[in-house]
Specification:
By secondary structure, the protein is α+β, with helices and mostly antiparallel strands. The chain has one domain. About 30% of the residues lie in helices and about 10% in strands. The protein has a two-stranded antiparallel sheet with strand order 1-2. A two-stranded antiparallel ribbon has the order 3-4. A hairpin with a 2-residue loop joins strand 1 and strand 2.
Length: about 60
Amino acid sequence: MLFAGSIGRTDFPGGDYDTLIRAIREKLFTLGDDVRFVPGHGPMSTFGEERRSNPFVGDKSGTFS
């Protein structure tokens, strides 16, 4: 679902980009900026870091603003 600097793929059958972005913002980011997570691929990150810098779901992405 969420990776350091990226998001999961939505091009597979049943995938939905808007639903994924909404779920990350409304379910994960509400847990707090200091919460660390270990994605299935890549380095550990925090929800706060992803909000600040992730081009897909970050505060500067413009999606669902």
